[in-house]
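User: quick one, fold this
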Amino acid sequence: MELPIQLSYFIVAVLFVLGLKAMSSPVTARRGILWAGIGMVLATLITFATPAMGNYLLMIAALLVGGALAAWLGRKVKMTDMPQMVAVYNGMGGGAAAAIAALEFARAIAHGETLPPAATALAVLGSLIGSVAFAGSCVAFAKLQGLMKKAHRLPAQNVVNAVLGLGAVALGLSIVLFGASDGRLLVAFYLLSLVLGVIITTPIGGADMPVVISLLNAFTGLAVGFEGYVLKNPALIIAGIVVGASGTLLTQLMAKAMNRKILKVIFKPITGEAKGGAAIEGSMKEASPMDVAAMMRYAEKVIIAPGYGMAVAGAQHKVWELAKLLQEAGIEVKFAIHPVAGRMPGHMNVLLAEAGVPYDLIFSLEEINEEFTQADVALVIGANDVVNPSARSDKSSPIYGMPILNVDHARNVIVNKRGKGTGYSGIENALFYGENTRMLYGSAQAAIAEVIANIKTLM
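Assistant:
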């Protein structure tokens, strides 16, 4: 029986890796999700076949409840709320890893046993990382859902982080060195780890949120991998390693896209109430839907840069309708996606794909930035920090050095915003005051619909 089980785990590993590889491209992402899903189903079935396994009724009940809830959420949750759901699912993974270790410690205490030193060390590491990931993901969910409106930074925040971190590590070392025979020590360790996750994440504002979600995802993967070793379960080890490694690489790519070091994201975050930056001269100049329609109708090349405002308005279908109308008039249309546009990696790509935008019209920052100088119109829909030219020129700006979409290099720039306020990071955007920029105010859904109606009168 052992050989078929190990062979099945090997097949699971191959399916996970192939699935992850396929998910790296929008063209093959659906196939990748299917492969990874088949791998997860196989891993679950193997778990039932493991000789030492018990509590089958509880396992089946958990699968039925969790599966039903996931199916319901998958149909109900809007694409704009997907980052929140990712944060919740990620947190559940970290919390589950910490809970596995807690149950192993409790079982050992109940039977008067001690875990092997290596298993104890990895269980402690998994518990610490998993608890931080769980608590941090809960805070991330609250921020993304709008339940937590502001970032809260404590006086001497980094000192508090250090004290809590050292305290959790000290308690963890005590458990490793002296065993987990004292339940009070375990409770203190878990509570301190959870508080650490909350305190670290609370000051982080929206501008850093894509990086934080990716980092917490990597934490969850590591925690699951460690607990897989404790349980001697190859599926957990494989899944943890894959998620941890991919999450770490993605975090590095996100941080690079913002020109921010990961340690700065944690210890010197953009809080959402960012200050600094040179004073911006000039004023915002408003344009009517007819003005925008005329500008786009008689253009030769239009580049559209979507942001979270498009997601909030659910305007991706209207934006694609606009793009198709322009294409019918012989106008070249392309979409420009910044790596951290939206609230999680790939957010804008998924929204545009949902609306039916062909993949060959969607370009990354590196692929399209040089083309803005050739564009007659750059249409910015709900984006802010990722198109702020202060990141190139203003050394006093909190986002100085962050690579941006060069929309200000287009001959004309149209910015669709709901109002005159600052973006998610709280930083004023110099683009809005540019001589070649015009503001189209209103919800993206309604504003783009008006532009479409006016373009049709010009056809």
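User: anything notable?
Assistant: The beta strands are 301-306, 332-337, 362-364, 377-381, 412-417, 437-441.
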